[in-house]
Amino acid sequence: MSKKVLIISTSLRSNSNSNKMAEEFARGAKETGNRVELISLAGKQIGFCKGCLACQTTKKCVIKDDAIEIAEKMLDSDVVVFAAPIYYYEMPGQMKTLLDRMNPLYGTEYKFRDVYFLTCAAEDEADVPTKATNGLQGWIDCFGKAAFMGTVFAGGVTGTGEIEGHVALQESYEMGKNI
């Protein structure tokens, strides 16, 4: 059965390594007949959550910016994939800000069930993405019908394009094929 897949590339750098992973995941998912949309946070305006909780009543955020459209796309997707660089052993601030702004989805009839995480970092030890993954898991835990389905990590990549030839690209592609 075809799934609606939303891939969110959180890097703000052009041609980023994590975006290359997102593109490979998308290629794999498309090849198996899924409907895939890849969006980037680059150029998007996403303000900080104010903690007013108005969204819990209205199911809409009071801040009028690009997070509203992203929330609508997430609400209607079967699969959500985040692609992110690891900064100081954590997810980048723009990703955390986006997750905070997805509060209007809490308590709705969201469709996403499967959540994936593609990460890369200059450091290459296997535990580098642990804190970022735990942070995403905390967000997923708030959505009882959703589950963390997998992650791919590309270590040892810093500069733009350094990911070329890295095994993580093939792993991202395969993960996309197997959703």
Q: Mind explaining what this structure looks like?
A:
This protein is of the alpha/beta class and 179 residues long. The protein has a single domain (4-177), classed as Rossmann fold (3-Layer(aba) Sandwich). The protein has 6 helices and 5 strands; from the N terminus they run E-H-E-H-H-E-H-E-H-E-H. It has helices at 17-31, 55-58, 67-75, 93-101, 130-141, 167-177; strands at 4-9, 35-40, 79-85, 114-121, 147-155. A 5-stranded parallel beta sheet has the order 2-1-3-4-5, with helices on both faces. The chain is globular, with a radius of gyration of 15 Å. It starts with a strand and ends with a helix. The model has no long low-confidence stretch (mean pLDDT 97).
Instruction: Give the total of beta strands.
Output: 5
The assigned CATH architecture is 3-Layer(aba) Sandwich
CATH superfamily: Flavodoxin domain
Q: What is the number of helices?
A: 6
Secondary structural class:
alpha/beta
Low-pLDDT regions:
none
- Encode the helix/strand succession as letters: EHEHHEHEHEH
Shape descriptor: globular
CATH C-level category: Alpha Beta
Average pLDDT score:
97
Distance between the termini: 10 Å
What CATH calls the topology is Rossmann fold
Strand order of the largest sheet: 2-1-3-4-5
Number of discrete domains: 1
Strand content: 15-25%
**Radius of gyration, in angstroms, nearest whole number:** 15 Å
* Main sheet: strands, sense, barrel: 5 strands, parallel
Q: Provide the helix percentage.
A: 25-40%
